[in-house]
UniProtKB/TrEMBL annotation:
Residue stretches making up the Sodium/calcium exchanger membrane region domain: 34-124, 185-320
GO CC, one annotated term: plasma membrane
Membrane topology listed for this record: Multi-pass membrane protein
Annotated protein name in UniProt: Sodium/calcium exchanger membrane region domain-containing protein
Domain of life, source organism: Eukaryota
Subcellular location: Membrane
A Pfam match: Na_Ca_ex
Chief place of localization: membrane
Transmembrane segment boundaries: 6-24, 31-47, 53-72, 84-102, 108-129, 179-200, 246-268, 280-299, 305-325
Molecular function via GO: calcium channel activity; calcium, potassium:sodium antiporter activity
Annotated GO biological process: intracellular calcium ion homeostasis
Family: Belongs to the Ca(2+):cation antiporter (CaCA) (TC 2.A.19) family. SLC24A subfamily.
Keywords recorded for this protein, A-Z: Antiport, Membrane, Transmembrane, Transmembrane helix, Transport
Length: 327
């Protein structure tokens, strides 16, 4: 084993996580995993990309959602919207598992999954508009952030209305700088995400090779755990503050994003014809069972008992991946 190469790539991997966190903060949290998936595909590492999205979907439920249940202080009662999200996630997961099992993750299916994600987003907006589903309430920290964003939004709007700006006594040009600031932050966030995706995927492959692990196993475990840290933090904060519906919506939304858009990108751009190092039946079953467990816990309103079961199952999954299924 080349210890110098191993230590260097571990360091690069850790640095990539920090850059990823910065990029996610400046851009969009869900694009974190998509950045890693795209970077892995560009490096012709489809097993790492597919393992990352499957491992992340497992980690979101068994790792993050379980923590939220454990930290919730009182009895859990999920609303109608959370139950709808859970049902949609179970349907999407079932579709993905069936397609993957029968080796149908081809370019046509990839386009279909991406289109399905677009339909899902539009249907959620429509359901909220019609009152079938409710937009998740914000936590305290989110409310503070939204207040700041609202002030910035007002500044951006006043750029197009000089009369209002002059009447309010504000300094001309202030809103222009504010708008430029947001555009600049968006740009730097995109650059950071792209760089982080490259660092994580490249270093992950090198570390996996040094440890004689397959790219799929490393993506299912270490990479997926690192890229879902924001979801784990949100779950803990939401659970401790009693915002169970935020927790459920975040988990369902993240996994639907993974199993439609991210899986579609992998199927459309990656080479999944040779599945000798992509996944095994145990991993597909774990993805589906975790989604089923999430659905049942939301429908039945289960709390800490379900959290303990999920967390124990996640630890068992990681142990089996590093021993029996290390490939």
């Amino acid at each position: 084993m080349d210890w110098d190469s191993l230590i260097f790539n571990i360091g690069v991997f850790i640095a990539g996580v920090f850059v990823l966190d910065y990029g996610a903060d400046k851009f969009i949290d869900h694009t974190v995993i998509l950045a890693v998936v795209v970077a892995a595909i560009l490096q012709h590492r489809t097993p790492l990309a597919l393992g990352n999205l499957m491992g992340s979907s497992i980690s979101n439920v068994l790792g993050a959602f379980s923590l939220g249940l454990l930290f919730h202080p009182t009895r859990i009662d999920f609303d109608r919207s959370a139950k709808i999200y859970a049902a949609v996630l179970l349907a999407v997961t079932t579709l993905f598992v069936v397609l993957a099992f029968f080796n149908q993750l081809n370019k046509v299916v990839g386009g279909f999954l991406i289109a399905l994600f677009a339909v899902y987003v539009l249907s959620i907006f429509y359901a909220i508009y019609k009152g079938v589903a409710a937009a998740p309430e914000l936590s305290d920290s989110d409310s503070d952030a939204e207040s700041t964003d609202a002030v910035d939004a007002v500044d951006a709007v006043t750029e197009a209305t000089p009369l209002i700006e002059s009447q309010s006594g504000q300094i001309p040009g202030r809103s222009t700088r504010t708008l430029l600031y947001h555009v600049t932050q968006l740009f730097f966030g995109l650059i950071a995400l792209s760089l982080a995706g490259y660092l994580l995927s490249h270093s992950a492959v090198s570390v996996a090779d040094s440890l004689h692990l397959s790219g799929t196993v490393f993506g299912l475990t270490i990479v997926s755990f690192a890229t879902t840290l924001p979801e784990k933090l949100i779950a803990v904060l939401s659970g401790s503050r009693g915002h169970v519906n935020i927790m459920a919506a975040t988990t369902a939304g993240s996994n639907i994003f993974l199993l439609t858009l991210c899986a579609g990108v992998v199927a459309l751009a990656g080479d999944t014809r040779n599945q000798s190092d992509t996944f095994v039946l145990f991993e597909l079953i774990t993805v589906w069972v975790s989604s089923l467990g999430f659905f049942l816990s939301v429908i039945l309103g289960q709390g800490r008992i379900a959290g303990v079961i999920f967390l124990a199952a996640y630890l068992a999954f990681l142990a089996l991946e590093f021993t029996v299924y290390r490939r």
